[in-house]
Amino acid sequence: MKFLIDAQLPRRLATELKQSGFEATHTLELPDGNRTSDLALINLSGSQEAILVTKDSDFVQSFLLKREPWKLLLVSTGNIGNDELIALFQQNITQLTEAFKNFAFVELNRVNLICHL
Fold it and tell me: By the 8 A CB rule, do 80 and 73 touch?
């Protein structure tokens, strides 16, 4: 399973996912870094079959209207510290990987994992 981590999330999230055995790329690792356009992220998600992980609701609109990016994980925690965010992913990684077997749009908040049709 591959993850593409958007700019407003910490690079450390990609590092933690890699340490858990997943492929993960943060925008800082891309040629345009955190200035990588939304369109470029959507295209990269599709070409690499990578789950785009973001807090940006613009991607939700794109997904609902065009089914792009390939798969979407919306982090809807509001303001959250990096340590708390990493812990939240660690606690939910099994459920996330299972959810993406059947759903293309999943939302993670502080309490729930929501699978959208």
Answer: no
Share of the chain above pLDDT 70, in %: 100
Q: Which amino acid is at 95?
A: Q
Sorted by sequence, the CB contacts under 8 Å of residue 110 that are 6+ apart come out as 77, 78, 80, 88
Count CB neighbours of 46 within 10 A.
15
Percent of the chain topping pLDDT 90: 99
* Residues recorded for the chain: 117
Q: Which domains does the chain have, with CATH numbers?
A: 2-116 (3.40.50)
Q: Report the C-alpha dihedral over residues 48, 39, 66, 95, rounded to 10 degrees.
A: 50
Q: Residue range 54-73: average pLDDT?
A: 96
Query: Going by C-beta distance under 8 Å and a sequence separation of 6 or more, which residues neighbour residue 46?
Result: 68, 69, 70
pLDDT at 117 over 90: no
